[in-house]
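Appendix B: complex inputs.
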Amino acid sequence: MTYKNPPTVPRKSATFDDYTLSEIRRAAATGIYDIRGGGAKRKVPHFDDLLFLGASISRYPLEGYRERCDTNVVLGSRFAKKPIELKIPITIAGMSFGSLSGPAKEALGRGASMAGTSTTTGDGGMTEEERGHSSILVYQYLPSRYGMNLRDLRRADAIEVVVGQGAKPGGGGMLLGQKISDRVAEMRTLPKGIDQRSACRHPDWTGPDDLEIKIGELREITDWEKPIYVKVGGARPYYDTALAVKAGADAVVLDGMQGGTAATQEVFIENVGMPTLACIRPAVQALQDLGMHRKVQLIVSGGIRSGADVAKALALGADAVSIGTAALVAIGDNDPALEAEYNALGTTAGAYDDWHEGRDPAGITTQDPELMKRLDPVAAGRRLANYLKVMTLETQTIARACGKNHVHNLEPEDLCALTIEAAAMAQVPLAGTDWIPGKRGF
Amino acid sequence: MCGIAGLFLKDKSLEPDLGRLLSDMLVTLTDRGPDSAGIAIYGPAQAEYAKVTVQSSNPDRDFPQIGTALARSGISPRDVTLKDSHAVVTVDQSSLEEAKASLLSISEAVRIMGVGGTIEIYKETGLPKDVIDRFSIRTMGGTHGIGHTRMATESAVTTLGAHPFSTGPDQCLVHNGSLSNHNNLRRELKRLGMVFETDNDSEVAAAYLTAEMGKGKSLGEALESAVRDLDGFFTFVVGTRNGFGVLRDPIACKPAVMAETDRYVAFGSEYRALVGLPGIETARIWEPEPATVYFWEH
Amino acid sequence: MASINLSETPLRELNRQLHAVTAGSNDIHFDVLNPNGSHSVAVGIDQPVTVEVHGSVGYYCAGMNDGGNITVHGSAGPGVAENMMSGTVVIEGDASQYAGATGRGGLLVIKGNAASRCGISMKGIDIVVCGSIGHMSAFMAQSGTLVVLGDAGEALGDSLYEAHLFVRGAVKSLGADCIEKEMRPEHLEQIRALLDKAGVTDVRPEEFKRYGSARKLYNFNIDNADQY
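Resulting structure:
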C-alpha cells in the first residue's frame, strides 16, 4: 500500500469571498458600478439583538383583548392646523411612482387605508392611483421636484421635505432609462428612455437656515394646515434631528441604513449611513434636549419587519415607524412562487433587487404593462392590511406584557440587549447586567 | 448655519451710527440663527494701547478683581469698561501679554474674546436683540463692524462657540456654512502651535487665516489661499484693523448680498438686512461671485 | 383693489387673502407696500390675480405661482417664482440665486441681473433675463426656455436635458454635456415670441446664440465618467 501525502482542502479567502470576486469580474467586464435597489444587506446590529423584559411580580401585565392597549398616534401637532391622526403607529414609507407600478401604488393605498394609516409619494409625483386609494397621503418634497405641483401639494395631507434617505445619505438618485415609460417621462418632464438623475441637494436651498425659510414658504402656500415632516438619512441623527426641529419641522423621519431605495450604487447602500438601531437614541436625545420629545414626532424606518421591531423602536423613543421593503414583500415582492422567473433573471426569490431594470415578475417594481397586470391591487392591498394588523397586534401583545395601556408608554428600561454592540447602540443594559457600554458621543 | 451682517464705513460722518446700523441689520436676521449672537466693533485706534475683551460667566465675582489682578503684575490699565458679562481692558501695548495672563488668572470662568488696538468683541447665547441690548451695542461708534447670529450645526451652543471668532490681534471672522475638512486642518494648525478654544469649524477657518497672515500674507492673499485649502460650504466675512473682506466657496450656495455706496460697503445674508441703511435705494447691490475675494481697506 | 402694507399687516394675511380669491372674483388686484425683503410674498396663488409689490422681496416670492401676474418693483431674493406652474412674474430689479428653480410653466422676466443657478432644474418655464446670469445657471434644466440678453457665468447648462438656452452676450464656460448649437428659424421665432411677451423691443433674435444638450450623458457610458 502506497502512502499519499494528505492534501489540504482548497481554501477560499474570507476577504476575497465569492461575492467579492464576482463583483471584481463584473466591474472589469462592464466598467460601471453595480446599481441595485433595496437597503443594506450586510449584517448589522438590529432590533433582533434586543429583548423585552415582560412583567411578572414587580410589574403587572395587562390582559390581552380585554384591557385596552391603544395604538393611535398624532403626527404634526406642533404647528399644523390639521395634524395627521393614525390608528396605528406604522406608516408606509415614500416610494416613487416610476420605481413602483401604478397597481403597486394603488395596493399600498388600499392596504394602508384599511389599516388606518398613511402612505407616502416618492420621487416622481402624486398619481391618481395613490391619491384616490389613500385616505391619508404624505407628499414628498424632493430635490428633483419631479411631479411637484401646487394642486397636489394642496391635495396632500402632509408634506415630507426629503433631505436624505438611509440607503444613501448624501446621495441623489438614478432611475435607469428602461423604466422611463411615456407616463413616467411625462410626470418627470423628461424624454422617454433616458437615465434620470436626481440631485443630492435641493435646487433652491442649502442648510438649516435656508430650510427654515423653505418650510415657511410651504406653510404659507398651504395656509399652515398641513404637517411638515423632514426626512433625513441616518448619519448624524443628533444634529440632523435638532436642526430639523430648529428649522420648524412638525415631525422628523429618520431612515437607517437598512432602509431601501429604488436604485443607487451598491457601494453607497452598503457603506454609508448608520444602522437603524444606532440612530434612534441620539435622535430622541436631541428631541429631549430641546424639550420637544413627543411634541415633534419621530418616525423611524429602515428594516422594520414585525410588531417586535415596532415595539422596540417605540420603546427607544420613536413615535411611529415606517415600512417600505416589508410592505413590498407583503403585496407580493420576491415571492418564491415566482422562483422560475427570478432564476431566469439570474437571481432567486428573496435576493431580487434589480428593481431599476423594470423586469419585476411580481409586477411591482416595473412599468411594463404586461408585468404590471400581474398585480391585483385589491388582493395585494388586502394582504398589506392583514400584515399591518398583525404587526399592530404583535406590538400590543408586547406592550401589554410590559403593562402598558398605550404603546407609547414603552420605555428603554423595558429592554435589555443580547450583544454588547446592541447594548451600546440602543443604550440599554446587556441582558442580566446593569452595563450599558460606551457613553454618549455623537 | 447662520446670518451675517457686516458694515464697513467710508464716510466718517456715519461712524457714530455704526453700532445702531449694524444692530438693526443683525436683528433682522434673527430667524437665521436663534442660538447665539455676536458683534465685533472696530473703534478708534489708540496708539500704543491695546484692548482686551474678556468675558466671564460669573462677572459679579470676577470683574471686581480685574484691578488687583493687573496690579499684581505691575500693570495699571488705562481703562476698564464693564458691560454685563464682558469687560474691555485697555493696557499699554508693551504689557499686553502679561495683562492677558493676569486676567486669565482671575478665575477659570474668565475668557479672552479678542485682543487688538481697535477691536471689541461681544458675544453670548440668546437672541440678537437681547445680546445687543445687554452690551449697549447701539450706542457704539466705529469704523467697521461684523455681526453674526448662529444656528449651531455640530458644535455646542456656548458663548465661546458664538461668532465672531478672533484668533489674532484685531482679526475676526464670521461664517455661514459648514466646512468638511476642518478636523484635519485643526490638527495641522495645532501642530503649528495654534490654540483652539472650541470644536467649531469656523474657529478653524479663523485660525487658518491668522496662520496665513502670520506668514506675511495680506488678508486678501490669505483669503485666496483659503479657497484652495478649505473644503465645504462657506460664506466668510472677516475683519482686520483697517480691512474688511468677503469670500464665498466655489459652489457658493450660502446666501450673500452686498451693497456699496460712496458712504459704506455692507454685507448681509439676506437683502432684508440691508433695507434700513441710508441711501440703500440707490446703492450698487450685488451677490459676491464664487471663489472670489472681496476686500476693502481704510 | 386691495392695498396691503406689510409693515402693518402680517404676511399671513396677504397670502390668506390671495388664496381666498376664487374663480370669478372681482377684486383681483392687490398692491403690496413695504415688503422690506420679506420671504414668501404672494406664494401659492392659483387664480389670475394681479399683484404689484412695491419694494424688494426676500426668498421664494411668487413661489408655485399658478396663474397669477406678479410684478416686483424692486429686487427679489433667492428662489423667486420657484416651481411656477403658470402666470407671469416680473422683477423690475435683480434676482438672487435659484430664480425660476424647477418652474413648470408661465413666464418669469427679470429686468436686471440674475445671480447663480438661474433656471436650475427648470421643467417648462420660460425665463427672460434682461441683464446677466450667474454660474451654474440652467443646471439639470429639463425643459422650457431661458433667454439671457447679457452674459452667462461659469458652467452654463451643466447636465442639461431638453431646455433651450439662448444667450446674447458672452458665456464664461459651458457645463458638462452643454454645447453650442445651430440657430434655426424656429429658434429665432421662439426668441422673438418670448421677447415680445417680456416687452423687450430693442433686441434682435439674431444677436443670440443657442445652447443645448449634447445628450451624451443621457444613458450611462463609462467612457463619459469624467463628465459626471
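The longest strand of chain B covers residues 2-9.
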